[in-house]
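Record copied across here:
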Amino acid sequence: MDQDKDVTIYDLAKALNISVATISRALKDDPVVSKKTKKRIIDLAEELGYRSNHFARNLRNRRTHMIGVIIPRVNSYFMSTVIAGIEKVTNEAGYNLIISQSSESAAREAQSVRAMFNNRVDGLLVSLAYDTTDTTHFDIFQRKRIPFLFFDRVADDNHWTNVLIDNRKAGYEATAHLVAQGCRRIVHVTADSGSNVYKDRIRGYREALLDHALPFREEDVIRNSLSQDAGSEAASAVLRMRPLPDGVFVANDNAAVGCLLALKRSGVRVPEDIAIVGFNNDPVSTVVEPNLTTINYPGYEMGMVAARNLVHHLAGQSSIDATNTILLKADLIVRGSSLRMTAAR
């Protein structure tokens, strides 16, 4: 037999002198076929390297049992926990994943959407890129009634389910905690992005200041890429401010750690001189000294909830065709980087 040619059920039938119908039933584990005959067929199939053409069969059934996932970047602890949650649910439901990253580019995101469509995924889970403002590249999914939903970074104008946390509330709690620790000039370090995630966190920051009779000043908002290096650069900007801020709320932990380390290198005492709160509860938050106060972002749960909603929709058990926002709980985890009152004793 030609080594480069795929083995078919016709080859198995010819080699064993058994009907094609019997071969097909045996490979589907049909109880009609005797165990002895089934074993002969399976043993030969394994020996010859037979592969079932699931793709062709799935196309006949109008299902590929593949779900697409588009995320901003893979080198993110939060996103890795989201994917783990998605995988748990989809694997148990018999789906495979195709994962693509937009690298924070709306153009690459649009290319990924088209690739997912061409690969005939049954559904799509998406967290948007930093610079995505126009979501018309998802129209091909809507026109074909292929379900998709957004998680974490969501679109303002979609008609599917969104899974996220209450970022406004989390931003409020982080800022209010710094106020409760005696901070009176609090800087917010955030992303230079129109994403709902960062818009809502800054809204919570602003509301907390105003509710505690503290002024909101645009010059106290630093916008950057939120990398660890960007956090270090934010620390330099903080140190140039007069009067010196006594609190910093950073929209992710990587940048918060970069800020904390740079401030300490400059002789600033954390939290006595400047208290710091991050966001995400990444593992890095417990490596630095003092440990970082942060918002626990339930990535694994978010992945499970998003995947479960999509899988249930595909199974006809529920619908995600109407706008529906699912909010997950995000708690403030208080650690040493913000406890000015305790440090002052």
Observations:
- The chain has a mean pLDDT of 90.
- The chain has three domains: 9-52, 64-165+299-328, 167-296+332-343.
- The chain is about 45% helix and 15% strand.
- The two ends are 83 Å apart (CA to CA).
